[in-house]
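Hello again, I could really use a second opinion on something today. For a while now I've been wondering how a particular protein folds. Please have a think about how the structure follows from the sequence. Here's the protein in full, and shout if anything looks odd to you:

***
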Amino acid sequence: MFDKFRKLWRTEEAVRSKEERPHNLFEAAAVYVAACAEDDQDRMDEATGWVSPEALSFGVSELACRAVITLARERDESTTDVARTLLGLPAA
């Protein structure tokens, strides 16, 4: 009987902890950048409230670095060329 109760309690606790779990800076950055790309101001505002501005800035920067590296590998180009292309700048 206690074993069933313990399992039930752990399941409810896991569900509760998932709902109440705080967002991390990378999750906030991913949501913020995706919302920016879709021009979704409500979602941007929501993500901005999840972490401090400094943490969000770091997360967005890290996401940008990873995206440029990934695109450079896929295109077999330098990261500088990819970054400049994404920003609409002329080749260096």
Remarks:
- DSSP finds five helices and no strands in the chain.
- The chain has a mean pLDDT of 87.
